[in-house]
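Morning. Coffee machine broken again, so started the prediction first thing and wrote up yesterday's gels while waiting. Chain of 228 residues, entered below exactly as on the submission form.
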Amino acid sequence: MQDNEKKPALRLKGFTDPWEQRKLEEYLEVSSQKNFEGIYTKEDVLSVSGDFGIVNQIEFQGRSFAGASVANYGVVETGDIVYTKSPLKSNPYGIIKANKGKNGIVSTLYAVYKPKQSVNPEFVQIYFEQDARMNNYMHPLVNKGAKNDMKVSAENALKGQIVFPDIKEQRTISEFFRNLETLITLHQRKYEKLVNIKKSMLNKMSQMGHLYRKFALRDLLTLGNSVS
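Came back before lunch.
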C-alpha cells in the first residue's frame, strides 16, 4: 500500500473500511518516565535491534554499555514504542519498535512513547518494518549532524503523516503477523535440528557407506518430518 492510498490492495477477511491518514502524534505520546528512583539497574538496559526488536542489552550483546549512572535513562514498559536515532544500513534515520518483552530502560539517545487507546503497539512496529516506509517517514523530519547523529526531538518525530486502520483491524493484522512469526520460528528450529543431524553424519564420514545402506531416501524424509 502506498502511503497516500486509503485502502490497501490486500485485506484480511471482514475489513473494508478505508484507512485514515493522520499524524503519528495522534496515536502516540512522548513518555517522560525516567529512572530517577533507581528502580532499574544496568542489568535492565535495553537495546533496539533491526532484526530482533527490543532486547535486553546484556542478553543480546553480552555486556552492558551503560554509563556510570542510569538515573536519567528512559523507562520502557511492555507495550511502549521506542525510536532509536542510531542509523542502520537499511534505515539511515533509525527504526521504530514496540517493546514486547519485560520492562527496562534505554539511554537518552532513544525516544520512548506511550500508545494511545486508538493504536495497537505491535501494529506500529509492523507498519514501520518496511524499510522504504520507515525511511520516507523520517527523512523530512530528521537533520543529520556532522557526526551522522540524528537531529530530531522526540516530539518532532511524531509530526509525520501515517495511514492506519481502526483499532480492530490493527489488532487482527498484529495477530496474523504474530502467528506467522511463531510458524517461522518453529520451522527455523526444525531446520537447525536437521542441520545438526547432517553435521553429526558428516563427522562420522568413515561410516558413511554403512549409513547410506541403512537409510533409504524415504527414511531420511521420514526423519526430517519427525523433527519438531
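The chain has six helices and twelve strands. Going to sketch it on the whiteboard this afternoon.
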